[in-house]
Specification:
By secondary structure, the chain is mostly helical. It has 19 helices and 2 strands. It has a two-stranded antiparallel sheet. The longest helix is centred in the N-terminal third of the chain and has 31 residues.
């Protein structure tokens, strides 16, 4: 304690916290915005993955409600349907980052996810009217709409969350991915066998998305300055934290987007590779686990759905564990931010790599071991949320949304190729050796992707983040040394 010039006792620590932009109190509006982003990603991923399990019931009514249409779609057609979402998804990634900076993350997120929710409800009708071709076209349109999600969320996190809270609140928002996956995979089998049949999978996921859009319309905001009910104290704290970065996602002056600098930055190119490697393995498993469970492990639609959800439940829990560890390491200055990013990214990609190699040698008689290895593969991937996933904010808080758009665009090209390659390799869905090739390819991509991130990755604000006249500052309040 010290005494100020008026003779009043002052807590130097609290004053320092205030100046640094460190929160002095608990829950605030920024936490509510994070909660809304969590549910946005829950809805987005529920709508993305619903077809993965629904297509099992749509093409084989055994174990589900027999009163609804069954379609005779071969494996290659199913792989085409599962990848079609990403054809549209990659096209709107980069423009979405620019639009989110110009109009605000709220508008782009609300428009894209709201439209996608409405389209999702029409899936059963389109399947009846035009077969797989019309469903494929619908999924492309849904992908176009959802392309705004990650650039918008990254833009909103940069605007709302102080740097010191980004590992935790960023993880809280992005675990909506797993929560949506868990809920959809766990309930879709039950829905398919219920009186409402497999169409209810699309009606419920689309309907919940429409409800979220109404809530976000009234309570969401692009920045603290645009939210009227935020306290003066919290708004000042967030703005001071952003001032410590010498940046904001909504800077007063219009910043020129340095496209050439992005594409010639080794640190950013390494981030693209890491994101792409992660997406290859993640979406290979997410789109194909239900088929693997049914055809190799012999699980029926109900147990298939629950077991398919188990790895993503593990990822949901592990994400919070890893973010807590990362926050404590940062708070205690045990390791630099760049070391933290590389450490957790290595856990998130190389532990799953080893598990995939083990999974390649598991046969159909060892179904319990296969489920355990799948759970380890996906569960430890949650470490990436404090690895490459928030590295965009480290490199450039000003252009974080655009950077996410670029890496997500390239990364999701992998999401298109991966299911198509599985359809090409796996001609006999019950052949363990063909699935072994799929797992080996994913493991090799994990190895190379994280290796390049370790060599070239960085976690300090890059020179191209700020206008030439600005003094460049550290990207977080923590140690950012690159040694």
């Amino acid at each position: 304690m010290a005494v100020n010039e008026n003779g009043v006792a002052v807590d130097n620590k609290k004053e320092a916290e205030a100046e640094a932009g460190t929160p002095k109190y608990g829950l605030g509006v920024r936490h509510m915005q994070t909660f809304l982003l969590f549910f946005a990603l829950t809805v987005a991923y529920a709508q993305r993955v619903n077809l993965s399990v629904a297509v099992v019931a749509m093409t084989d009514s055994k174990g589900s409600n027999l009163n609804f249409p069954e379609y005779n779609w071969p494996e290659k057609t199913k792989s085409l349907l599962l990848s079609s979402f990403f054809w549209g998804y990659v096209l709107t990634q980069v423009p979405s980052g620019q639009l989110a900076r110009k109009f605000g993350g709220k508008i782009t997120l609300l428009t894209g996810l709201g439209l996608c929710s409405v389209l999702n409800i029409f899936t059963p009708l389109f399947a009846r009217w035009g077969g797989w071709q019309l469903v494929c076209a619908l999924r492309v349109m849904e992908g176009l709409c959802q392309g705004v999600v990650f650039p918008s969320v990254h833009t909103l996190i940069s605007a709302w969350v102080p740097p010191s809270e980004r590992p935790v609140l960023g993880t809280c928002a992005y675990t909506g991915n797993q929560f949506g996956t868990i809920v959809m995979l766990a309930t879709s089998g039950l829905l398919a066998s219920s009186s409402a049949g497999w169409p209810s999978i699309f009606y419920i996921s689309g309907g919940v998305g429409c409800i979220w859009a109404i809530v976000f319309f009234f309570w969401g905001a692009s920045s603290p300055a645009q939210y009227k009910r935020i306290s003066v104290e919290e708004r000042k704290m967030i703005e001071m934290a952003q001032a410590s970065e010498a940046v904001s996602e909504q800077p007063k002056e219009k910043l020129h987007t340095p496209w050439l600098s992005f594409l010639t930055s080794p640190a950013f190119l390494a981030l693209i590779v890491a994101h792409s490697a992660n997406n290859w393995g993640f979406w290979t498993l997410l789109t194909e686990i239900p088929s693997y469970m049914k055809n190799v492990l012999g699980k029926d639609i109900k147990s298939n759905a629950l077991l398919s959800a188990l790895p993503y439940f593990a990822m949901f829990i592990m994400s919070f564990i890893f973010s807590g560890i990362a926050m404590q390491l940062n708070k205690r200055n045990c390791i630099s931010t760049v070391t933290s990013r590389k450490l957790f990214n290595s856990i998130g990609l190389w532990v799953p790599m080893l598990a995939l190699i083990g999974l390649a040698y598991v046969d159909s008689a060892q179904s319990n071991l296969a489920v355990i290895l799948l759970t380890v593969t996906v569960g430890f991937n949650g470490a990436c949320y404090v690895g490459f996933q928030i590295n965009h904010l480290d490199l450039s808080p000003n252009f974080a949304g655009i950077l996410m758009g670029i890496t997500n665009c390239v990364g999701n090209i992998m999401s298109i190729i991966a299911p198509l390659l599985v359809g090409f390799i796996v001609n006999n869905e019950e052949d363990v050796e063909q699935w072994r090739v799929v797992f080996f390819i994913a493991a090799a991509i994990y190895l190379v992707g994280n290796g390049l991130f370790i060599i070239f990755g960085k976690a300090n604000v890059q020179p191209w983040n700020d206008p030439p006249a600005k003094h460049r500052r550290s990207s977080t309040l923590h140690v950012e040394s690159q040694h």
